[in-house]
Design a protein that fits this description.
alpha+beta; Heat Shock Protein 90; elongated; about 575 residues
Length: about 575
């Protein structure tokens, strides 16, 4: 068989090529799997961390806004503190005003005492820019209405993160609200409350913990930046993220060279950003490690190729040279020690092969002489059947000339049987030719013996199925010679079983039958020798069994059932075109 063209012709080249391909494929698969794993782990870990951190900030802000709203409700005209405002503004003398102011101040301290984050809280008059009931003095030109707000809900303004307006707590980062109210006497006031919210400290803490630079943004209702912890993002600029996907109650996306998490709450929209290069830092570290491993693997691959070359190719090269020498007629043994048990054993076997070849050459000379003699004998044995067939043909025409119809028919059938058995006609045996052969044989036997026979054949394409030659005639012969008497009946049935996909042949007689001992002898192997000088019994049936085993291996079945004085039934199951069909006789 001619091998397909291949770029590498030597075994040495192919071994190295195979090693390179196997290691490369394994390495690529390992890289791909580890890439998916590290990418999934690192990205999910960072995304989860960012979502969790932003959730903490947002929850804290929501709580601060809620606390300020509750305090502002107490400071409104309907609240515990607010209902005293009218009395304060309508007081006729300074003493009364002082007394009411003291009560309002005490009440403000009470409602804000439980919340330590509350800083400045005051009433602001936008008409005269005057502050009332403040706990800390504010910076000059302070006005709650000038502070950028995230959103407005009725009369309440929610401010973004900013520096405290108080001169005492001016370093604080706070959230604040402003609530517009009108007192009973018609005075317009603004309630202003601050709550400490050191988001920068929180951002710095998680940045130091994870060694990453996070940025916090607050967006207003129009998605414009109201607060930024970094100077890279300017207030008032529109902010949007691309390719957002939802993670729990947050949205993860990308903005320029940043990745971020956006979370929308009832009071504000917060965004936590991280530079892409820091987001991919662990991934880049993995790439560096993979590149290092790849270089190490290729170094080991080159080293292993050299080792394989020395361990495998060198002994094979010596072996190749010895084969070429043997091809030129050198059958002298050679002893090579390679250090590898497999190769040493191979060379020993090679030496044994050389010695066997020397012996075979000697035997071939003797065989050639015997072959010449066998060919002469073969020609002699071929002449005898040919002479017999020619003689039968002459008898046939002689009987026809003298109107001897019985002799003519006898010789015609006999000549067909002899030609079929020798393969002169119908060289490819089928079930149909076997039936024809059986019918010819039964015609001959009916001329000699007085018995009845009935051959029932189901017509169909299955009759053209190839089968072993001469498997039906020996069974019929055995029944006629050893089972039937002059009043006997031989029944042959041949049909196709579509369920079993097999041909079922039964040959049944009503003769004397077989004893258990005779049945055992018939089923003995064909090659078994019978002790004594007694003629072998059942040789025809053993011949059929051997032919079936040779043609069908173990897929055909031959079953023999017999009882004394009741007759014998032989059943053959021959498979059709399916080597995997397993037949059983029920």
């Amino acid at each position: 068989m001619k091998l397909p063209p291949f770029k590498f012709r030597t075994l040495h080249q192919r071994l190295i090529f195979i090693v390179i391909v196997e290691i490369s494929v394994s390495l690529i698969l390992l890289i791909l799997v580890s890439y998916q794993t590290i990418y999934s782990i690192e990205k999910n870990k960072l995304m989860t961390s960012m979502v969790s951190s932003l959730q903490q900030i947002t929850d804290k802000m929501e709580q601060n806004y809620l606390d300020m709203i509750q305090i502002s409700q107490q400071m409104s005209p309907e609240g515990v503190v607010g209902y005293q405002l009218d009395s304060y503004f309508e007081a006729e003398n300074n003493y009364d005003k002082f007394q009411i102011k003291q009560q309002i101040t005490e009440n403000l301290i009470k409602i804000s005492f439980a919340n330590s984050n509350i800083g400045s809280r005051l009433y602001y008059n936008p008409v005269n820019n005057q502050n009332y009931f403040y706990n800390f003095a504010t910076r000059d030109n302070f006005s709650p209405l000038k502070i950028d707000y995230l959103r407005k809900n009725g009369s309440v303004y929610y401010h973004s993160l900013h520096q405290s307006a108080s001169m005492a707590t001016g370093t604080w980062q706070v959230l604040s609200i402003a609530r517009q109210i009108i007192s009973a006497n018609g005075t317009e006031l603004v309630i202003y409350i601050e709550s400490r919210m050191e988001s920068d400290e929180f951002i710095n803490t998680i940045s130091k913990t994870q060694n990453m630079n996070y940025i916090l943004l607050q967006l207003d209702n129009e998605n414009k930046i109201a607060y930024s912890s970094s100077t890279e993002f300017f207030r008032g600029r529109l902010f949007e993220m691309d390719n957002e996907k939802q993670i729990e109650s947050s949205y993860f996306g990308r903005h320029g060279s940043y990745v971020g998490v956006r979370q929308v709450s009832p009071d504000c929209t917060n965004v936590l950003l991280l530079p892409v290069n820091e987001y991919n830092r662990e991934f880049y570290a993995w790439i560096r490690n993979v590149v290092t491993i790849v270089f190490l693997v290729f170094f080991l691959m080159i080293f292993s190729s050299i080792v394989i070359s020395r361990l495998v190719y060198k002994p094979i090269s010596i072996f190749s040279k010895e084969i070429k020498k043997m091809g030129k007629g050198d059958l002298n043994t050679i002893y090579v020690h390679t250090g590898a048990a497999e190769y040493d054993d191979l060379f020993d076997q090679f030496n044994n092969m050389k010695m066997q070849i020397q012996k075979l050459l000697s035997d071939v000379e003797n065989v050639m002489t015997e072959k010449h003699q066998l060919e002469i004998e073969k020609i002699y044995y071929q002449i005898n059947p040919h002479f017999l067939m020619n003689s039968l043909h002459s008898i046939h025409w002689l009987a026809k000339m003298h109107n001897q119809t019985d002799i003519e028919n006898f010789t015609t059938e006999l000549n067909y049987i002899l030609a079929y058995s020798l393969g002169k006609i119908d060289r490819h045996a089928t079930v149909r030719t076997e039936v024809k052969m059986l019918q010819a044989y039964l015609k001959l036997q009916n001329m000699r013996y007085d018995f009845n026979n009935n051959v029932e054949v189901e017509e169909g394409d299955y009759l053209d199925t190839p089968t072993a030659r001469m498997i039906l005639q020996p069974i019929a012969e055995n029944a006629i010679h050893h089972g039937l008497d002059q009043s006997g009946m031989l029944t042959v049935r041949i049909l196709h079983s579509t369920v079993r996909n097999a041909i079922i042949i039964t040959i049944e007689d009503n003769g004397r039958g077989l004893t258990p001992e005779e049945l055992i002898k018939i089923q003995e192997p064909f090659q078994k020798k019978i002790e004594g000088d007694r003629k072998a019994e059942g040789i025809g049936l053993r011949y059929v069994r051997s032919m079936l085993e040779s043609f069908y291996q173990d897929r055909a079945i031959m079953s023999i059932k017999s009882e004394p004085a009741k007759g014998t039934k032989v059943t053959l199951l021959l498979p059709i075109d399916d080597s995997k069909t397993i037949l059983t006789i029920k």
